[in-house]
Fold:
Amino acid sequence: MNFLNPLAALYSLTLVPIVLLYFLKQEKVALIVSSIIPWRELTDTPTSDRRKFNFELLFLLQLLVILTLVLALIRFYILSGAPVKYQILILDASASMLTREKGGSRWEQAKAQALELIEDMPPGERIMLVRAGAYSQQITPFLDSKAKLKKAIQQLKCGETSNRLQAALQLAIAATESADGCKITLFTDRAEPGLRELAGRRRLEFKLFGKRRDNVAITALDVYQGLYDYSQRKAYITLRNYSPGARKFGLKLYLDQQFKWGKNMSLSAGESITLPFGNLNQPGILKAQLVVNDALETDNAAYAIIRPHKLLKWLAVTEDQELTTNLKRIAAAIPGLELTFLTRKQYPPPDIKQYDMATFNHLVPDPIPQLNALYIMPALDNKTFRAKPAKPDDIKIMDWNRKHSILKYLSFLDEVQLTEAEYLDLPAWANVLLKTRNFPLAWEGELQGQRLICLGFEIGDYLFPASGDVTMVVLLLNMLDWLTPQPSSATQIKTGDKYIFQHTAPLRQASIINPKGEKIKLATKKEATISFSGTDYVGPYELSASDVEGKQIKLTFVANLLDETESRIAPTPALPGEPTITPTSPPPVTQAALTQERLELWPYIIMAALCFLFIEWWVYFSKLG
Structure:
């Protein structure tokens, strides 16, 4: 008997009140007699003799209705056999499969079982191999050569990445035109429920691995790197104990392989903690390392890149003395920020490329410079950013984009009293930041890779008012933060994610050395952007490249697992009704090459229940008639 929802059998208890009702039911017939004398001499008859069960057709029909409904709820199904023509082996190559078990890691056990299955492959069957990690990869086409299949499995490596089993299953389904004669075997430590529905009519069999649950992991490593004040740099490390009991362990921090800090601690089962760490003024590679003997090693380390100090150069083109004075006060309070002032006549400077960002007051250069820039009250006759005078009775800030980072920490912008403003035309590529009832007062956007902000009012008049209101100071700091040039590529990614490097000139050659010390040459195709998807391991990656102009490029980025799903190594139980094979089970006996297709019968059982219900209704009303 095969059931997908056996707990629904508890609904069969509803049969009990029906049986009791019929058993206790006694038909009493009223008769008129002349005397009760003949009954006085009768002896008492046991109750059990008087309450004999009277079988009725209605009783049978009601039992059939209940039983068919219960069969439908428990999802009764049968398996039909068909010759196997194709079999697809999907090997889960995610981080949790590296969990150490008795007799080897889960990955080693999975490969061993796959090799056994190939060895027992009957004649006429073809097998395809699929590797399921952060991305799905077809390792071989359908082959009937045991030697080639075994060699392919032996060469497979497990990554330290997240798991995307659904994508791997979709790849396997796309490889077979028909479900007839197709079997998919998934070697994993997780039986995800959604995979059965995705497989449809194809036979899907799980082979589950793993028993251990003891694991402590680093689940997050975030480094706050202030753009201006390097003394405020801090790292925040989050740890979690996934073990069923309390665990003691140590935590050590290294900066460029030099020990910086350490601590012994303990966490109870399921407990999580976040620890701050400062004193990160020195650039380099920060490594957090757990000292613990648990089942999974790959989540015991995490890395981050501490960027070197950089002087941020800010150009301000203005002739407004109020704005000049206030910008100087702000720049003096921000370490690492160098502010240069020019008048409109002095613009452009000899080397404008030396600046990281610029502010233009009543000026929109033509053409605009290739810099992130803030434009304040653009000239009304400029050809780039259209503007027109605002009506004095319609310059109140009525709405703003509360979700934008430029406007964070600002809740009362409608209380700012503007005395002069411009209505701004919104470019097609820009987004509104502030607006009056009908017109934009400020917008932001990206044009040809440059971040631009345009304000339709004089911010310098409101930076340091007599009331002490700091609303506009916060707004200006947020704008500077948003305008600060970002690195051309990420320095910290998750394992399995693509690393994209963008350069200013086409690249001639490039290579990456991964944490295992393997050198991978990249095909540049003489383009300025390269993409690298081989980030399967936790640790630092070293990129070396040269462009067509002969410039040498060297940089480092890091990849981390930081995945709670993979660190939660407790294996999931088998799905209800799913035949599974674990490493402790005896190997399957090779019989005729058959695959079994599951045929669910509940729709037919529901139809039978409706038929019985209709017959019961007809019999009942026939008796009444």
Residues 575-595 have pLDDT under 50 and may be disordered. The two ends are 42 Å apart (CA to CA). Residues 2-79+602-624 form one domain. The chain has five domains: 2-79+602-624, 85-211+571-592, 216-307+563-567, 312-483, 492-560.
